Amino acid sequence: MAAIASNMAGTVYKILVQVGQVVSVGDDTVILESMKMEVPVTAEVGGTVTRILVQEGDFVNDGDVVVELA
């Protein structure tokens, strides 16, 4: 199992993927908002989304897993 982690602390502004969706390296999966900037969390590995661990409005820290892939 692979995971996609946030690259900074911020609030989850938008979730761009769904369970069952195939993502490739470089695809944006989640948009974080921090200091009024929108920052994408991109996939560093490819796979199929098995679980989304955050909801829009959640606060995440740097390194928190936001999406799990198979």
Description:
The protein has 70 residues and is mostly beta strands. It has no helices and eight strands. The strands form two sheets. A four-stranded antiparallel sheet has the order 1-8-6-3, with no helix packed on it. A four-stranded antiparallel sheet has the order 5-4-2-7, with no helix packed on it.
What attributes characterize this protein structure?
four-stranded antiparallel sheet; mainly beta; 8 strands; single chain; OB fold (Dihydrolipoamide Acetyltransferase, E2P); 54% strand; 70 residues
The structural domain count equals: 1
Biggest beta sheet summary: 4 strands, antiparallel
The number of helical segments is 0
| CATH architecture descriptor text | Beta Barrel
Low-confidence stretches: none
Order of helices and strands: EEEEEEEE
Calculate the mean pLDDT score and round it. Answer: 97
User: What is CATH's topology name?
Assistant: OB fold (Dihydrolipoamide Acetyltransferase, E2P)
